[in-house]
Amino acid sequence: MSPSLNTTEIITLLDLLESPSTFQEISEKFRREFPDSDFHFKVCDALCQLLQESDLLTGPEQHLKAAFLIYDVERDSRQNPFLSLLIKLLHPPEIVTSLARLSTQARWFLSQLLAAPSESLPLLELTAKEVLSKAVEESAICDTSNLQVLLMEHLAELPAYDKIGVSCIVPAPKPGVHSEELRRESAIDILTCDAGSFGPLYHRLAPSLHLGEDVLTWIDPNSEYIGKLEPFWDDSMCSSSAPATEVKKMMARALKLALTPNQQLQLISDLKQEPRLVFQLGLSPSRLPDLVENNPPVAVEVLMLMMDSAQIVEFYSALVNMELSLHSMEVVNRLTTATKLPVEFIHQYVSNCIATCENMKDKYVQNRHVRLVCVFLSSLIRNKLIDVQELFIEVQAFCIDFSRIKEAAALFRLLKHVDPPEGSPENKSDVSNK
């Protein structure tokens, strides 16, 4: 472990926390006092210890400045190594601990920095006193759930023994130190120690004292037994004896990014050879939209193989309710061509497409989606893949609403060649004319 802060550095840090300057000035002064970027982690670690033994700081202003510096020092890195502490400060645990509890104003300020760094630059011109004097409600605190998810994903990647440890900081057995001089002395005493955490120690197995058939022994290069050992070759190594494993790997990749055409063909071929594998891939309805957007041909094949299963209803529901896109329409179009889909599914999907277009605020995006939906519906009608009679009125109203778009006008003309359903205004007018 690297050496801890010395007394001079700690006093400089505490003076910085007591400064009445703005946050921008504190940031600049910190970098002047501690120019070595490799030293910043050690300073932030000291600030974490001060926040976890909150009696070492004088009050809310120092708590806020310490939290700000922990954020500010690492704001240019891809991931702040002290993110877990910042989240605890934003969402303090219900149980009483020695961790500093920030006020609503301080938590609002910190959440603004974490959620929108570029938009929160004007806040850096404020002082801690000005921030704490603002009238801020709990509801104004920005949502940082995405950061919590990022932290959980990062922690999940760590080995189990890296997550185990007991902090070296022991809370004071009595209320905080009231004297400023004693408080500083306590801070210096703690921060000059090689603090951190007590982690578990791991030892190798002790070698046996005798040789035996049922006893583990260390391999001794000078042992007479070495000459009698023969290599054992595993013939199944690197073989395709477990195709399911390769298919699972490829499917996991397909959920994250677009496969090459050859990879798509290989995955589809493997699924066709072993149709039962489709139920062993761990694909859930909630992940279907990812597969549709990244690899539509694979999504079509997976849904085709699931047609006779009880799970297909949930996958249909996920497909209907996913965000409207060219790929989702491509998948539905190919499914209607390859098999007979439930009528209610097609009707619900078409209705959702129309409703999505109608509710869009951005005119450019709306026009683009209307064109896609019109081409999609025209294809279904021309190929007689849907019974347009049951959707006639809804589709016709859609065409009229967007008649300024060329594709909508073309779809409207196509509808004119389709007999309207009985009871519709068009049908009644035709009958009266006759």
Automatic annotation (TrEMBL):
<dbReference type="GO" id="GO:0031047">
    <property type="term" value="P:regulatory ncRNA-mediated gene silencing"/>
</dbReference>
<dbReference type="GO" id="GO:0030014">
    <property type="term" value="C:CCR4-NOT complex"/>
</dbReference>
<keyword id="KW-0804">Transcription</keyword>
<keyword id="KW-0943">RNA-mediated gene silencing</keyword>
<keyword id="KW-0539">Nucleus</keyword>
<dbReference type="InterPro" id="IPR019312">
    <property type="entry name" value="CNOT11"/>
</dbReference>
<dbReference type="GO" id="GO:0005634">
    <property type="term" value="C:nucleus"/>
</dbReference>
<keyword id="KW-0963">Cytoplasm</keyword>
<dbReference type="GO" id="GO:0005737">
    <property type="term" value="C:cytoplasm"/>
</dbReference>
<protein>
    <recommendedName>
        <fullName>CCR4-NOT transcription complex subunit 11</fullName>
    </recommendedName>
</protein>
<comment type="similarity">
    <text>Belongs to the CNOT11 family.</text>
</comment>
<keyword id="KW-0805">Transcription regulation</keyword>
<dbReference type="Pfam" id="PF10155">
    <property type="entry name" value="CNOT11"/>
</dbReference>
